[in-house]
Design brief:
Length: about 90
């Protein structure tokens, strides 16, 4: 999304918040400004889902990113239990 004006800011903020809620509900909580691998991967999913939503194609997001969603969710569970060295 190469948007060079501020006319879309409110819409993009809304789409980003919806996408954040979606990823959090599917995978678990993460830090928006976090620097761990998990936080970065989660934010990438948020941005990708927002791109799909912006282009009126959100119904295709889960099919195209299902392996990423599942992988992140599993890694987040292991990280909560301390069974992984995910961190940087």
């Amino acid at each position: 999304m190469h948007i060079s004006h501020s006319g879309e800011d409110d819409n993009l903020k809304r789409l980003l918040s919806f996408s954040y809620a979606y990823v959090e509900s599917k995978c678990g909580a993460f830090e928006l400004q976090g620097e761990t691998t998990i936080d970065i991967r989660a934010m990438e999913l948020v941005l990708e889902r927002t791109r799909y939503a912006y282009n009126d194609a959100v119904e295709y997001f889960e099919d195209n990113f299902l392996s990423d969603i599942n992988s992140l969710g599993i890694d987040m569970i292991f990280a909560e239990e301390g069974d992984t060295d995910e961190g940087v």
